[in-house]
Amino acid sequence: MIIGTNLAAQSASNDLSRTSAALTKSLAKLSSGSRIVNPYDDAGGLATSMRFDAKIERANAAKNNVSNTQSFANTQDGYLKRVAHTLNRMSELAMLSLDGTKSDADRALYDNEFSQLKSYITDVASKEFNGVDLFSSATVTSVIDSEGTSFEMSGINLGSSTYTSVTGGSSSISSTTTATTALTSIQGAITELALNRATIGAYQSRLNMASDNLDATVETFSAATSAIKDVDVARESTEYSRQNILNQATTAMLAQANSLPQSVMRLLPQ
Known about the structure:
This protein has helices spanning 7-32, 43-97, 104-124, 161-167, 176-229, 233-259, and strands at 128-129, 132-133, 140-143, 150-153. The chain is mostly helical. It has a two-stranded antiparallel sheet. A two-stranded antiparallel sheet has the order 3-4.
């Protein structure tokens, strides 16, 4: 019997170190919810999941961009709906002024309302959305996917000559002559407005599709990264229980191994 080197205790100690490390690793996985606690657990899976996580974050940021651009387009269309009602009323007033049974005094009353409606359209033309002009010739550019694809919306310009021919200072319905000219200008503005709203409708449709695509991107890549790094709780719980039992057994055996040299004392003379 050798007492200088307790090989049994050394072996049990090594086993205890291994089971303790495995128990700690299993506990870390269960507490974090991740199968990959350290890079050496799955270096390739970690690299892939990091790329997927970055793509998901970019997609969420792009989703925010799309949402803001949708709000911009919706705000534009909301104002243009009111402009459409305004132009319709202005065309009605122009028609009333062309009535030969009306006096110039009657036309002056119509013209007062006509002037107020012109001011309303001029006011709408200067509206902004978060500091960005809603109705100018400037193109609005945004990013609509996780790869940085640009989307451009051409400017809806209420300051174009088609609209200013209606809202300009010379536009009036105070006489049959000016009312005829105004009516022609209003008809042209209504046609232009219809094209503008159709353009916005196309942009809204494209943005809706982009939003749906981003939702699908986030969903599919979240599922993919989950499959790579999320821990299987049932399986890992079983492993944790196994390592816990081994750890307790190894601890007990280490205690037994450490006590073996004491039996040598029985061989020594009293």
